[in-house]
Design a protein that fits this description.
Helix 5 links the parallel strand 4 and strand 5. The protein is globular. The longest helix is centred in the middle third of the chain and has 32 residues. The protein is built from 18 helices and 14 strands. It has three domains: about 200 residues, NAD(P)-binding Rossmann-like Domain (Rossmann fold, 3-Layer(aba) Sandwich), CATH 3.40.50; about 90 residues, N-(1-d-carboxylethyl)-l-norvaline Dehydrogenase, domain 2 (Orthogonal Bundle); about 130 residues, Rossmann fold. The strands form three sheets. The chain has a six-stranded parallel β-sheet, sandwiched between helices. A six-stranded parallel β-sheet has the order 11-10-9-12-13-14, sandwiched between helices. The chain binds nicotinamide-adenine-dinucleotide. Nicotinamide-adenine-dinucleotide binds next to helix 1 and helix 5. It comes from Aquirufa rosea. Pfam families: UDPG_MGDP_dh, UDPG_MGDP_dh_C, UDPG_MGDP_dh_N.
């Protein structure tokens, strides 16, 4: 099948590459000329495990192409994916300007029946708006399908190639047939394609992200309470996660969720509720708790240094909003860096993938280090923000020799309390007793 993917970010590039891997001919369209030129020159613009190999293979075999021209990109395409940004607008609702702009442009370009698939996360009712925008100038029949994406950054290729489920919102039999054919190679193990109407599909995506954000936040609140009552949140996690009704995943307490999806999607769903005169109390709390959770370690840092932070150097391990990605959108690290700089600290940071993105954002206001240990040289304390696996079993002796004080503020609970006690560290973590 000939496919066009409009918007070549984390979702679009993974979608395009994976569908070319299953034998389709895919053209990726993006208005970012630098990005398209980079890809034409054989460079993958984002870090996503497994993506490079697929990208190079399919480019070499002529199934994956790139262009900045929408007209050229959709030439002959039976299906057109929209994988465009839907950032929060000023009032918190999802900003649909990118999607509606492309929908407007698409109308006059369609030459035969085409299925236009919305892969972006969009508020309920958007597929109708997209349909109206295209219909204004379209001369041929078309269908607009809602096909929300559930991939996780960091394991996006795996998630896309073997999805737990595929949700497809359409009431058109013709579109259903095209979609089933397209996804058949990805659900061979029997995972379901769930068909529903467009509005329900749009809502499903928000419900999934809001539920997951709530699950994390619930656990963070349990952690906060654990600190006050002298319980250990890791034990609680094990104790409740083994209940199959609760499940083991998404129960790790930490310094809040970030990323390009949970914060904006929770906010957008709250906005949808508000527009429908419904107060979604849980979402309001989730947003509030997460906001505080992100900088939860700061009072402890201040306390440790007797409120004298001016001139202190803090090493930060991890900048990405989670491991295995270079994405720093809404990353808790950024909030902590801002607050520490404001308090007069210097920052020495290390992240295996996200440093170029942070440097593009913050310039040289913080120091970027070649490895985790360089960040510790002459630092007054270590703060751990992202749970990259390489931070899990560091050389503690080496750390000792580099850090000025044996103190770790761990926002991801990487180490056992007994180990920290034995090593003689002052160790602050989330939802567990402080070791001093
Ligand atoms: P992104 O910002 O990484 O990529 C969007 C791309 O669209 C950019 O490359 C941008 O240049 C391009 N673009 C903007 N306007 C354009 C236009 N008029 N024509 C062509 N290209 C244009 O975004 P993303 O993370 O891939 O997210 C896209 C959508 O998918 C969002 O709605 C998001 O909520 C949703 N989503 C994201 C994830 C994720 O993990 N990132 C997961 C599921 C769903």
């Amino acid at each position: 099948m000939k496919i066009a993917v409009v918007g070549t970010g984390y979702v679009g590039l993974v979608t395009g590459t994976c569908f070319s891997e299953t034998g389709n001919h895919v053209t990726c369209v993006d208005i970012n000329e630098a990005k398209i030129n980079q890809m034409k020159a054989g460079k993958v613009p984002i870090y996503e495990p497994g993506l490079e190999e697929l990208f190079h293979r399919n480019v070499a075999e002529g199934r994956l192409n790139f262009t900045t021209s929408l007209a050229e990109g959709i030439e002959g395409a039976k299906v057109i994916f929209l994988a465009l940004p839907t950032p929060p607008g000023e009032d918190g609702s999802a900003d649909l300007k990118y999607i509606l702009q492309v929908a407007n442009d698409l109308g006059p370009l369609l030459k035969e029946y085409t299925v236009i698939i919305d892969k972006s996360t969009v508020p309920v009712g958007t597929s109708e708006l997209v349909k109206e925008a295209i219909a204004q100038k379209a001369q041929v029949p078309f269908d607009v399908v809602s096909n929300p994406e559930f991939l996780r950054e960091g394991v996006a290729v795996e998630d896309f190639m073997k999805p737990d489920r595929v949700v497809i919102g359409t009431q058109s039999e013709k579109a259903k047939e095209v979609m089933a054919k397209l996804y058949a190679p990805l659900v061979r193990q029997g995972n379901p394609i769930i068909f529903m109407d467009e509005r329900s599909a749009e809502m499903t995506k928000y419900a999934a992200n809001a539920f997951l954000a709530t699950k994390i936040t619930f656990m963070n609140e349990i952690a906060n309470l654990c600190e006050l009552v002298g319980a250990n949140v890791d034990d609680i996690r094990r104790g409740i996660g083994t209940d199959s009704r609760i499940g083991k995943r998404f129960l790790f307490a930490g310094i809040g969720y970030g990323g390009s999806c949970f914060p904006k999607d929770v906010q957008a769903l709250a906005k949808t509720s508000e527009e429908n005169n419904y107060q979604f109390h849980i979402l309001d709390s989730v947003m509030k708790v997460n906001e505080n959770q992100k900088t939860k370690l700061l009072p402890q840092v201040k306390n440790y240094f007797n409120n004298e932070l001016v001139g202190k150097t803090i090493a930060i391990w991890g900048l990405a909003f989670k491991p295995y990605t270079d994405d720093i959108r809404e990353a808790p690290a950024l909030y902590n860096i801002d607050a520490l700089l404001e308090a007069g600290c210097s920052i020495k940071a290390y992240d295996p993938e996200a440093m170029p993105n942070v440097q593009a954002l913050l310039g040289n206001s913080i120091q970027f280090c070649k490895n985790p240990y360089e960040a510790l040289e002459d630092a007054d304390a270590l703060m751990i923000v992202t749970e990259w696996p390489q931070f899990r079993t560091p050389d503690f002796d080496k750390m000792d020799s580099l850090l000025k004080n044996k103190v770790i503020f761990d926002g991801r609970n990487l180490y056992e309390l007994s180990q920290m006690k034995e090593l003689g560290y002052t160790y602050y973590s989330i939802g567990r007793q402080t070791i001093q």
